[in-house]
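Re: the pair you flagged

First of the two:
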Amino acid sequence: MEKVLLSIISAAGLCAVLCHAERRYHFVYEEKNMAEARSYCREKYTDLATIDHMNDVKILNDMADLSRMNYSEFSYRAWIGLYDDMNSWRWSLTNTSFYKPGETEFRNWKPGRPNNYGSRQHCVVMDINGLWNDHWCDFHQQPVCSDVTGSNVTFVLAPTTMSWSDAVIYCREHHTDLASVRNMEENQKIKELASGLFVWIGLSRESWKWVDGSRSTFRYWGVTQPNNQFGKETCVAADFGNSGKWEDCQCHYKRAFICYSVPVSKQVIKVRLVKQSSSLDLNDPAVLEDMLKELRQNLRDQGVTQDVRLSWRKQADGKVFHKEKKKEKKKRNKIRMTRKTDL
């Protein structure tokens, strides 16, 4: 379908209107584990709390009632919506045609792995026995790259050691990508190629994520946190006995939690479209729906994860768009020229 240029003030302008809906926090002092807290927040409000900046931290510190957060251990903590996604392992080579059904899920972990020791083991090395270990991504190992043609692959051992992220860059510059391992046969080939070395392969995972899908990168960890001290600390609580700083915790603990809600609001935005093809009917239902999909994607790309609903407003004659009259166009251009002169 022909694309349409959207002059909305720009998609960023649309986001600016929708993104600034005020987020309201709600402390719930009924003690629940992380999963129960999340279900409660989604039922009663929007979700477990996402925290974007220090102003949010200040608001929560002012709201917290420490007298209602006394537990048998680790008092003054409350769950927030940050968690470590232990099951988000993905190959750096994302071309789906390279994998047959089930091949992206092939794993050859060493017993007891992955264990996420220290909460920072998000990349994978193959050891001298061909078994996989989760490892710190900034550690230096030699990578195994792949040269891919269709479904065929050749593995190449890089000559120098480097971090996992540098390995991705190196392999993509000199070959196709870091090695994906689709089956035991390929695993054996890499083991023999490495010949007694620990080597990077192309498997990694995301670290801390917000349960509502927010892309906020704001973090407020306490000293030495996250540390995964007991090997299973994949959930996060704010410690209001320590200025609301965050710590990783085991998810089964029962404690208070913080939900958030976003007030429902309605915004009407005027849109001017510039057609690239004179044959395109802007009032065609298929064209209108295609443009809404593009706008929704633009909002997601800019981090808008709230329940935003977009729809077109029809005019009295049942149409959404009308061709701009020449007089209106001249008037608009004149206004633009005047503004430019004033500047």
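Second of the two:
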Amino acid sequence: MGSIGKFNVLALFGCLFVCGGVLGIEEARYDNYRVYKVNPNDKAQLLTLEQMFAASDSYIFLESGSNVGDDFMIVVPPHKLADFSETMEVEKISFELLNGNLQLMIEEEKNRIKTKRTSRIFDWNEYQELDDINNWLEKLALEYDQVELIEGGRSYENRTIKGVKVSYKKGNPGIFLEGGIHAREWISPATVTYILNQLLTSEEEQVRKIAENYDWYIFPSVNPDGYVYTFKKDRLWRKTRTPYPGGCFGADPNRNWDFQWLEKGSSSRCTSQIFAGPEPFSEIETKTLSDYISSLKGKLQMYVSFHSFSQLLLFPYGHTSDRPSNYEDLNEIAKATVNSLANRYGTWYKYGSVYDTIYPVSGGSSEWAYGVQDIKIVYTYELRPAHGWAGFVLPPEQIVPTGEETLDSLVTMVQETDRRGYLKL
């Protein structure tokens, strides 16, 4: 995620794939795509970056700040290299080459996954594909009486949005965990499955308390078509896979919810990575998942969404700088949560409202949960790393540490929320 002022500059590139005729679509490649760190030193230079975002679907903004002096990580395709370099030099914007061939890093990751796939063991030493995640969920439902397999909806390509309900006793208030709404953010489903596993197997007292005293509705990958596409066709794909006129595919499923839709930080252009869709809930994934969540109204007391990257803990609002009625509680819970997260490995998160902490944005699932479903405790994690152009291709060695520290923080979040009286039916 990332922004420049009031612009969300996760602008990817429209249709960066090569057509393979009637046999289908070949895999997207990023041969000789270069990654640059760019640093604007004044408002005029910042405006230049804003204009680059608005005018081109070719640049990939992996990371950005929102102020003069912030670093911006931009992927530049070969055909835009001359334009990019000239713009930086003419505008006297500081830029530094970080990587000369993005494809090599993607191939490294792919080869590593293929090598480790021979065992087919579900663990957290590598990123798991959708079928492996779903098979593991089904296995949990067979092995544990406390686990019920549930379906949160369907996808455009008719995949199930598969999840589980974990319940140790009747009458528990409900907590909803959402993962993988942006397809390329692989650490999100990995972290959600890690937390699920610990809720079932951990012997730590505090983990057992939150596991057994709340009902957990857990969905590791709520954008299944997009997630599969990142493994098969395009590692940096973000959206759904719904076809739209003009030869583009997908909408941003975290801009498509019917709350302040298309008001801030989203686009009406279907080639944009932040395309909000032609209307609210145009995507079957968001529509059917929202129907399922609505069926739980009054049961859910907390909603937590997991994204990457930036090391942020965010809460409402995103569409306005106005503060929600329980802002002080949300802020204090967030403060305790990020302090708890940092205890294990020293991983520090910033926290605050979406609008003030990252960028203005609307139409997201968490904000819909707060504004429409009246779930008063709503948070969005932006997981590791804090910075870096390779943030979406996080090394698998960081899966377990990310899961451990995030679970630590989730324990604190639940405890602090309960202490303030929110986790009651």
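The first helix runs from residue 43 to 55.

-B.
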